[in-house]
Design brief:
The chain has helices at residues 2-18, 30-44, 50-72, 82-94, 102-111, 139-144, 168-175, 177-187, 220-247, 259-264; strands spanning 24-28, 121-129, 162-166, 194-198, 204-213, 251-255. It is an alpha+beta fold and 265 residues long.
């Protein structure tokens, strides 16, 4: 009996050691993590907290699971483009979600007003050049003495002569993180023309504050479409979390230590 128990124990250990793990493996390597963190830090113009880093990794893992579930359910349509697979899977999960009533939207708006509070922003007068070599000498001096900005520079087909409601996020998207920091620091000092500010595409910009827009909460009637979109997003998120919970056991997640990426550098 003792020998039998020993043999049974050895067989159990061997099975545990050599049993095949059939779960899908998702690896979040160090390079991917650094990329996610750098992108978000540039958008926020500050270092990320550990909680924010964990949220980014978790969101990446959740998206990867949704992508793989989309492929399993036949939503690839010959395409492996991640964004399309995510869109198809999200629509599949939330496709039967009923439209909210106006009463539901008003209750949601009143309970989540922080989601609809617009951040402080600026309206900026704007002159653009294709390169620094095209900038006339004494441009800032001329502008600050009253030169007509519409007669200078090139036509910016994206913004025109005025950049409206430029909050921190929109400045980062328009100019990149480093230039956005310079813009914010400069326009906080005074209302004169400031520059040059290089964009990520190599164009050169000069800016002047026309108006400061404080943080503002819109009326429900003005924001009803926006409220409906956020309501649908939150409800869809609840359904996706249930779906993710139901398939989580099918996946094995490995998150690489960050120091490995730094050692390679």
């Amino acid at each position: 009996m003792f020998q039998f128990l020993v043999l049974a124990g050895l067989l159990f250990i061997a099975q545990a050691l050599f049993a095949k793990d059939d779960r899908d493996l998702i690896v979040v390597d160090a390079v991917t993590q650094e990329y996610l963190f750098d992108q978000e830090a540039e958008l926020l113009l500050r270092p990320l907290s550990e909680a924010e880093k964990q949220d980014l990794v978790r969101n990446f893992v959740e998206e990867e699971i949704l992508v793989r579930e989309a492929v399993k359910r036949g939503f690839s349509d010959g395409s492996r483009i991640r964004a399309l697979l995510l869109q198809n899977m999200r629509f599949f999960i939330a496709g039967d979600l009923a439209e909210p009533t106006e009463a539901e939207l008003k209750e949601y708006f009143n309970s989540n007003q922080e989601k609809f509070l617009s951040p402080p922003s600026y309206d900026l007068e704007h002159v653009m050049f294709n390169s620094i070599s095209e900038v006339p000498p004494n441009l800032l001096e001329d502008l600050n003495e009253g030169a007509d900005p519409t007669s200078l520079g090139e036509i910016d087909i994206t913004f025109g002569n005025t950049l409206r409601y430029m909050d921190q996020k929109r400045l980062v998207q328009a100019f990149g993180g480093e230039t956005a920091k310079e813009v914010l620091a400069a326009i906080d000092q005074n209302d004169d023309w400031q520059g040059p500010f290089p964009s990520q595409t190599g164009t050169i910009h000069f800016l002047r504050v026309l108006k400061e827009n404080p943080a503002q909460l819109p009326e429900f009637e003005q924001a009803q479409d926006w409220v409906a979109t956020r309501w649908m997003t939150d409800k869809s998120r609840e359904l996706m979390e249930k779906e993710l919970e139901s398939v989580a056991a099918d996946y094995k997640i490995e998150i690489a230590p960050l120091q490995k990426a730094k050692e390679v550098d």
